[in-house]
Amino acid sequence: MDYVIVGNGVSAIGAIEGIRQHDKSGSITVISDEAVPTYGRPLISYYLSDKIKFETLPFRPEEFYEKNGVVMRLGSRVLSLDTGNKVLTLDCGDTVKYDKLLLATGGTPVRPSLPGIEGPGVHNFTTVAHAETLKELVDKVKKVVVIGAGLIALKAAEGFAEKGVEVTIVVRSRIMRTYFDETAGELIVNHLEKNGIRFLQGTGTKQIVRYDDGTIKGVDTDAGLVEADVVIVAAGVRPNMGLAAQAGLTTNQGIRVNDYMATSDADIFAAGDVAEAKDLLTGEYTVRPIWPNAYTQGRYAGLNMAGAESPYTGGLSMNSITYYGLPTISVGETNLADDEAYETAVYLDRDRSVYRKLIFKDNVLAGCILIGEIDAAGFYTSFIKNGFELDAEGKERLMEGDPSPALWPDSFIEAMMNNP
């Protein structure tokens, strides 16, 4: 069996491990337009700020690929996919045949239609190549504007601020609104402002202003001109579905997959930020561009490419990151605008930047936001993932910050003990 994986993110690692769990001898080829093997993308801000070395970025050591018999075709772009003949054509002219194919092509940075965006001084921040480019600039620039509200925007800002660069983040609405409510966002902003990052929230961007020689002057916003030497555009990422569309696969928000991570072509699978897969809590099919889902989807895709017939139970909305020592996490349903079907419990200590919000539906924990104190996050997540029903006492203990495993059903504990 010839397995081919297009893409170089954590989904590819999951797929390799899934394939080898079920098939020890089939050939595995990974094709990526990046020049380096899979690395921890959330780490590139630390690489930019010289907190870590390049050698610490790889997600798996070189021996991993050798041990698993993986052929790496790095720096290679797939130009076309012929599903009839099961052939990929690369930009170098080579062709690669497959029996089972995984599309783990990730996402492409959104480039908004802003006057002045084309030209030097405007950068993205999603790959190690972007970080390499910015490392050459970080000691030469004094002011940076970051356009965006998500994790990429915040981590790019942190990377520059750590090097003493004056950073302003321009946000059309508010930060991290997909994962955090207004209170959580406010705590994070206050913490980052104490560490030197300036925010313009609820502020639209009009254009990127340049001098006559084409260099960056600044960003024109609803609040006026913000001076900058460099602009980072982190306005979101959209699934990279070009190959899938060219091949006629079913797409919507992402490449649509079934419960076995297979696309509308039974020999082609998709996983990670490009896949529209089942959500664990809602049962709906959606794109969840986060690391744990990407790895798990890749692993199930690999298992099923190798014939295991193992259904993917579904992804979970989750975000966990630390900003200048402030740990944060959100899990499950966290932004429910006045929905009467849900009950919320909140604990807030602004002085210590501690926030806990629990969301219940029908006596089941449906989501949580934790800021500052997150030690119990794993236990809260277990209640959300498993849908444990709680009595009044159980809910009260969770609300008080005590999601004890003693509240798990006996049947669940017994099953854990019988399946080490």
From TrEMBL:
Q: Which species expresses this protein natively?
A: Pseudodesulfovibrio indicus
Domain NADH-rubredoxin oxidoreductase C-terminal, first and last residues per copy: 320-387
Output the Pfam families linked to this UniProt entry.
Pyr_redox_2, Rubredoxin_C
Q: Which cofactors, if any, are listed as required?
A: FAD
- On whether Metal-binding is a keyword of this UniProt record, the answer is no
Question: Into which family does the record put it?
Answer: Belongs to the FAD-dependent oxidoreductase family.
Q: Which InterPro entries match?
A: FAD-bd_OxRdtase (IPR050260), FAD/NAD-bd_sf (IPR036188), FAD/NAD-binding_dom (IPR023753), FAD/NAD-linked_Rdtase_dimer_sf (IPR016156), Rubredoxin_C (IPR041575)
Q: Does the keyword Flavoprotein apply?
A: yes
For this UniProt entry, the molecular function terms from Gene Ontology, in alphabetical order, are: oxidoreductase activity
FAD/NAD(P)-binding domain: residues covered: 1-298
Name by which UniProt lists this protein: Pyridine nucleotide-disulfide oxidoreductase
Coiled-coil regions listed in the entry: none
> Which keywords does UniProt give here?
FAD, Flavoprotein
| Lineage of origin | Bacteria, Pseudomonadati, Thermodesulfobacteriota, Desulfovibrionia, Desulfovibrionales
For this protein, the record's SUPFAM superfamilies field holds: FAD/NAD(P)-binding domain
